[in-house]
Specification:
The complex is a heterodimer of chains A (about 200) and B (about 280). By secondary structure, chain A is an alpha+beta fold. Helices cover about 40% and strands about 20% of the residues of chain A. Chain A has a four-stranded mixed β-sheet, with helices on both faces. A two-stranded antiparallel ribbon of chain A has the order 1-2. The radius of gyration of chain A is 24 Å and the shape is elongated. The longest helix of chain B has about 35 residues. The chains are: A alpha+beta (about 200), B alpha/beta (about 280).
Chain lengths: ~200, ~280
């Protein structure tokens, strides 16, 4: 009798075990693949919600300073550019970066691949700007230390120099944190601007 | 009928379940290894009367690094120089040399510093060739880690929390307070950075003498491969592969030997400081 009962019910524990395993596998899949979207959503929530564009387009402009490379030396060089102003620092920052990617109007060298895409910029209350790039910034160029440092600091300096609310810049790729762009500069920590590499 | 269903369900589950069990085993296996480095390391790291030199040939595998006009890629040249340097050190000194890679394979950046920490390296040398968007950029430079990259308390705390685990356990008792751990880690890092700058200076001076390339000096940068290394660590950028003239030099056996020789001499001088 004592032996018979467990035997009869052997199917049930197996079923429960099977069910639990399915649940575990599903959880594992959600855990490992769901992360990216989660992060984007979480980070996106930090950004200021985009208000509706005003009905009357006043097209207010503001001047920003961009940082490019020059053939003459190893420094970053300033170039002024007009962008549409407002409504938020994050949106102005996106426009400033778009101009940086577009390249110099003089004969300065762009530190970013022309294919570079900014997916979003969000600025936290404590002054960290998260710049989320598309994968092109990594894939469209084979970086050396110099070009990688130039790419990172052109972005960081451009944002910190023009926007009072931005103190540090964190670079994301496709919504997630990456180690480096091309094997050199540590992207896992936010950057402070470095104006020592900017030409006077 | 019911029983059959259960069976088919079970067999369908066999693969994912097996995978899961495998993963669990993998994690269990990694666990002790990752935490096995204990405080025994503490004595070794302050006195670089070195026994082990870890050489890191930059990039590898699909990660080619910088690319030259004539088709030479950074990963091949760094490996060639690293192999020459290894031979030089092993020939003349009683030092053990460990390479982070000895062939053309992908090695994640964090594994490179982990190699240094796992073998309890006394010196870590990462070899690269530089790349710039300016075709005229030229010369050689030696980097060590920048401390100024994360100056404020909050960021340092964040960095500590992100990087905690094994390398901090190397230096401090697990039971001590987090703040104490952080201060100790900072002190250890400060000591490494001083030594790293000495090492960088000595190697750079030899690069200038032996290569005749433009002296770009020693610099600090937040390079990922240097951040996790618990010993004096430098990253050498020998000439620019993006500069056609320097690319030709870099591709030649003679120049590669000179780079290895310069690093070797600089390393020797540095090690003499601490003997």
């Amino acid at each position: 009798m004592a032996n018979g009962l467990p035997k009869k019910n052997q199917g049930k524990p197996a079923l429960i075990l099977g069910g639990l395993l399915v649940l575990l596998v599903i959880l594992a899949i959600v855990f490992f693949t769901g992360g990216e979207r989660e992060k984007v959503r979480r980070l996106a929530a930090v950004s200021v919600p985009k208000p509706q564009p005003p009905a009357v387009k006043s097209e207010e402009k503001r001047t920003v300073t961009l940082f490019f490379l020059s053939d003459d030396d190893d420094m970053l060089h300033r170039e002024s550019r007009e962008i549409t102003a407002g409504p938020s620092a994050a949106e102005e920052a996106e426009r400033a970066l778009a101009e940086l990617i577009k390249g110099s109007s003089k004969d300065l060298i762009s530190p970013l691949p022309p294919e570079t895409r900014v997916r979003q910029v969000f600025v936290t209350k404590d002054g960290v700007a998260y710049v989320d790039f598309g994968r092109e910034i990594m894939e469209k160029f084979s970086y050396g230390s110099s070009s990688e440092l130039a790419a990172v600091y052109a972005v960081v300096d451009t944002l910190a120099f023009n926007f009072k609310t931005i103190k540090k810049v964190s670079i994301l790729i496709e919504g997630t944190e990456r180690e480096t762009l091309g094997g050199h500069v540590d992207l896992t920590q936010p950057f402070f601007p470095d104006y020592s590499i900017v030409a006077k | 009928m019911k029983l059959k269903n259960v069976r088919t369900d079970k067999s369908r589950l066999a693969l994912p379940a097996g995978l899961l069990v495998f993963l669990l085993f993998l994690l269990a296996g990694l666990g002790p290894q990752a935490f096995s480095q204990t405080a025994s390391d503490t004595q070794a790291n302050t006195r670089p009367g070195a026994r082990k030199v870890v050489i890191d040939p930059g990039h590898g595998g699909i990660e080619i690094g910088a690319k030259g006009k004539f088709g030479n890629v950074e990963k091949d040249i760094t490996l060639a120089i690293a192999l020459k340097l290894k031979a030089m050190i092993e020939k003349s000194m009683a030092f053990q040399v460990v390479l982070t890679r000895d062939k053309d394979i992908d090695v994640p950046v964090e594994n490179r510093s982990a190699t240094a920490n796992n073998v309890k390296a006394d010196v870590f040398i990462s070899i690269h060739t530089n790349g710039s968007r300016q075709k005229t950029a030229e010369g050689s430079e030696t980097f060590f880690l920048s401390v100024g990259a994360t100056p404020d308390e909050e960021t340092r705390r964040l960095a500590y929390l992100e990087n905690n685990s094994s390398r901090i356990e190397d230096h401090v008792d697990k039971t001590s307070e987090d703040d104490v751990k952080m201060i100790l880690w900072d002190m250890a890092q400060a000591a490494y950075i001083r030594q790293s700058s000495q090492l960088a200076e000595m190697i750079q001076s030899e690069l200038n003498t032996l290569l005749g390339t433009r002296n770009r000096g020693i610099k600090q940068a937040p390079f990922k491969v240097l951040t996790g290394v618990a010993c004096p660590a430098v990253l050498i950028e020998a000439a620019f592969i993006s500069n056609p003239d320097e690319e030709k030099k870099l591709a030649s056996d003679g120049f590669q030997t000179s780079v290895a020789e310069a690093i070797y001499r600089g390393l020797m001088k540095y090690l003499q400081l601490y003997q």
